[in-house]
Amino acid sequence: MNQELTYEAAYTELQQIAEEIENETVSVDVLAEKVKRASVLIEFCQQKLRATETEVNNIIKQMENKPGA
Predict the structure, then answer these.
(1) Which of 6, 47, 58, 67 is most exposed by smallest CB count within 10 Å?
(2) Would you state the torsion angle of the CA atoms of residues 18, 23, 29, 31, taken in this order, to the nearest 10 degrees?
């Protein structure tokens, strides 16, 4: 599933989990599962953001190093 997961989908799911917890609509029986899933989603989003930041920085460096730039 993580191969098909996008940042937007992960973020949306995180928002939904947070809302369920804040509104206390999550039963105690599944609370630990929701928190564990949220942890996985947060890590996924952080990795995606770090990878994107690295890629953007590399592009900027390439543009700065081009002759005539």
Answers:
(1) 67
(2) 20
**Do 36 and 64 contact (CB within 8 A), yes or no?**
no
> Distance between CA atoms of 9 and 31, rounded to whole angstroms?
20
CA proximity to 37, closest of 21, 19, 22, 17: 17
Mean pLDDT, range 3-25, rounded to an integer: 93
Statement: residue 1 has pLDDT above 60: no
Domain count, the chain: 1
What's the rounded mean pLDDT across residues 11-33?
A: 93
Kindly state whether residue 44 falls inside one of the protein's structural domains.
yes
Whether 2 shows a pLDDT value over 80: the answer reads: no
